[in-house]
Amino acid sequence: MTTGGITGLVLTLAVLLVVIAGIQPLARRLGVASNVLLAAVGVAIGALAAFLLFTSFTDVFNEAARAVVYLRIESQTVITIFLPLLLFQTALTIDVRRLVEDIAPILLLAVVAVVLTTASIGLGLSAVFGVPILGCLLLGAIVATTDPAAVVAIFRDIGAPGRLTRLVEGESILNDATAIALFTVLMGALVTARATGIEEPNADMAWQALSDLGIGLIGGALFGALTGRLVVMLLPLLDDIKPAEATLTVAAAYIIFVTGEYGIGVSGVVAAVVAGLVVSAQGRAHISPENWRHLLAVWDQIAFWAGSMIFVLAALVVPRLMADVDLYDVLTILALALFALIGRAITLWLLLPVLSMLKLSTRVTHRYRAVILWGGLRGALTLVLALGVVEAPGLSDGLKRFVAVTATGYVLFTLFVNGTTLRPLISWLGLDRLSPVGEVLRRQVLALSLTDVRGAVEEAGRRYDVSPSVVREIAQSYARRADQVTSDTDVEAEIADRERLGVGLVALAVRERGLILDLHDRRTLSTATVDRLLRLTEALLEGGRNEGRLGYMRVVRTALDFERGFRFAYWLHRRLRMDRPLARRLANRFEMLLAFRLAIQELRPYVDERIRPMLGRRIAELIADMLDGRARQVAGALDAMRLQYPDYAEALERRFLARMAERHELARYDTLAQEGLLDAELYDDLYRGVTRAQSRRDDLPRLDLGLDTDELMRRLPLFADLGDEVRARVRQLLRPVFVLPRTVIFRQGDKGDGVYFISSGAVEVRIEDRRIRLGRGDFFGEMALLDNRPRSAEIAALGYCQLLFLDADDFRRLMRRDPDLLETFESIARARAAQNRSAAT
C-alpha cells in the first residue's frame, strides 16, 4: 500500500471514529439504540457515496466517494481483528456465577435454538423458493447469530429485569460460537458438494458435519479453559502494573483465538469465550480490586471501538449488496424473518418448559419469552459472514447473491423493525416496572436517602455560612419529599417477613463480598484465600436470594468444612507422607478464619446502620442472631487452630496489622501529594519505601505442622524413662501423624494396624453409647494387637491432633525386645478391658 493509501485509510478510520462518537449522545436523545443509529448512518453514508460517485451533478467528491463505494472488507480479516476482542470482553464482564444459574436455558437458546433456527430457515426457504437445501442451511447459520448490544442497551435504559438481560447476553456470547462453527462446517460441505457434483447432502456428509461441529465446540471449550487458567496464573506475576495486566489479556484474546481456529483446528470462537469466562470467574482474586476495575474499563473502551467500527464498516457495504433488490428478494427476506421466528418460538414455547419440568431451570415467564423472541436482533457479524460467502471462490454467483441480499435485508429488518418496536413491547408487557416488593423498597430507600440529604444540606449551610433562608428552602424541599414517601410506605406491613429477610441476607452477602475485596485490596490475604472467600460469599448470596434463610444457613453450616482440595492434601499426608500441601492448606484455612472473623465484626454495625432502618427491627434482629451464630462457629474453629499453633496465629495477626498500617501510610502520602505538600520525587521515594516493605511480607508465612518426632516423643511420659539406645530404636519406628477435627481414625471391627500415641490434642473413644476422652500422653489401639482381634471401639479426633504411629509388626518386635514396655501396655490393656466389662454390666 502506498503512503497516500495509508494516509487515506487512517483519515477514513479517524472520520468514522468521529461519527461513532457523535452518534452516542444523539442516540440517547432520540431514545434509540446506538447500533440502530450506527446502521442507519452507515447505510446512509454508503448510499450517499454511491450517489455522489455515479451522479452527473458533480465530480467534486468522486475520490472520497470511490473509497467508500469500493471499500474492500475481507470477512476473514474483520473476524480475526475484531471478533476476539468482542467475544473476550463480553465473557470478561459477564457475571459467571449468575450465568451458571441459568446455564440450562442459555445453552438451549445458544445451541439448540441456533440449530433449530438454521433448520427451520433452511427447510422452509428451500421448500418455498426451491433453493438448494445446503445454500438455505448456510443462510440459516449466518442469520442465527444474535447481536445483544442494542437489546441490552434498551434493557438498561428502561430498567428491564436483570435475569432477562442475563439470558440475552448469555445466549449471544455462546450462540456466536455455535453459529460460526455451523457456518464453517456448511461452507466446507457446500464447497465439497460443488467440487464433487453432489446436489443434496447425504448421510455421510451429515455425519461428517456433525462430527466436525462437535470436535470444534468441545475442543474449543477445553482449549479455552486451559489457556484461560494460564492467563489467570500469569496475572499475579506482573507486579500489579495495570497496563501490563491489560496488555496480557488483550494479547491472550488474540493468541487463543488464532491458535484455536488456525493452529489446532478447534473453534477459536468457543476458546476465546471460555477463556474470557475463566478469567472473569477467577481473575478477580488474582489482582487487586482497583486493577480489576481498570482492566474492565480498558476492555469496555476496546469493545466500544471494535463493536462500533465493525458495525459501521459492515453497514457501508449494505447499499452495494442491496443495489438490485426486487420484489422476489423482499418476499424472501420476509419469509426468512417468519421462519427465523418459528425456529426460536419452537425453542421458547416447546423446549424451554421441559427444562422447568425436569427442574434444570427456574421458569421463564411468557413475557420474558416474548421479549427474547422479538429481541433477536442481527448485526455486524451476520453481515460479515454474508460477505464471507460473497468472497468464497467455490460457490456459484447465484448462491452468493441469494445469501448476501437475503441476509443483509434480514439484518436491516431486525434493526429497523424489531429494534424500534422492542422498547414499546417491553413497556406494554410491564417489564420496565419494579415488582411490588421492589417498589416498596425503592420508596423506603428514597425516604432514608432524602432524610440524609436534608441533614447534609443543613450541615453544608452551617459550614459554608450560607444564608439561613436559602438553607431552609432547600432543606424543606427534601423534607417534604421524604415525608410524602414515608407516608406511603410501611415496609413491615407491605412486605412479608420472608421476603424482607431474603432482601436483607442478599444485602448482607453483597456487603461481605465488598469487605473481602477490601481486605484483598489491602493485600492482607493470599490469592487462594481470596478465591475461596469470594466463592463462599457468592454461595451465601445465592442461598439467600433463592431460598432465603434456609439457603443462607445451609451455606453457613458447610462454610467451614474441609473442601476437596484440603481432603486431598490430607490424603497425601496420611498415605504418601507429603506434608507441604497440608501445611499450605492449613495456613490458608487459618487465614480464611481470621478474615471471616474480621468480616463478621464489620457486618454487625452494618445491620444496625443500614438493614434496621430499611427492613425493620425484627429482620435486623433475625440477621443479627444469624451473625452471632456464625461468629461462634468461626471463633470455635479459630480457637482450635490457635490452641494448636499459637505462634502462627500471632504471625498472621502481625502481618494483617502491618498491612493496615502500610495502607494508611500510603493514603497519608496520597493526601499530602494532592494537597501540594509533597513533590513528585519525594512522593515516589516514600511510595517505593512502603512497597518494598510490602513485597517482603507478600507471601503467607509458612506453617510448621509440628511433626518433629523427637519433639513429639518428649511430650509422652511413656517414653521418658527409656534409655538412650532404646529411645533411638523406638524413634526410628515411630511415624508422626497429623489428624483433623472430627476425623475417624479407625472404626470398630477394623483390623488392628498399629498403636497411636497422643502428643497433642484429644480423641474420643466410642463404645456403643459410651464416650471416653483421651488426651496428651495417652495411647490407643494396643488392645487389638495384644489380643489379636479386631478393633473394639471407634476412635475420632475431637480437634487437631499430633500423633505418633507405631506399626503393628514394629510394635510386636519392640515388645519382644523390651519386656518392661510390654508389661506397661498389658497392664493398661487389662485395666481398660476391666473398665469395659464393668461399664457393660
TrEMBL record:
Start and end residues of each Cyclic nucleotide-binding domain: 718-823
Principal localisation: membrane
GO process annotations (BP): regulation of intracellular pH; sodium ion import across plasma membrane
Cellular component terms per the entry's GO annotation: plasma membrane
Keyword NAD: no
Domain of life of the source: Bacteria
Keyword GTP-binding assigned: no
Keywords linked to the UniProt accession: Cell membrane, Ion transport, Membrane, Sodium, Sodium transport, Transmembrane, Transmembrane helix, Transport
GO molecular function, one term: potassium:proton antiporter activity
Residues passing through the membrane, by range: 6-24, 36-57, 77-94, 106-125, 131-155, 176-195, 215-238, 250-278, 298-318, 330-351, 371-390, 402-419
Membrane topology qualifier: Multi-pass membrane protein
Entry's localization field: Cell membrane
PANTHER family: SODIUM/HYDROGEN EXCHANGER, SODIUM_HYDROGEN EXCHANGER 7
Name of the molecule in the record: Sodium:proton antiporter
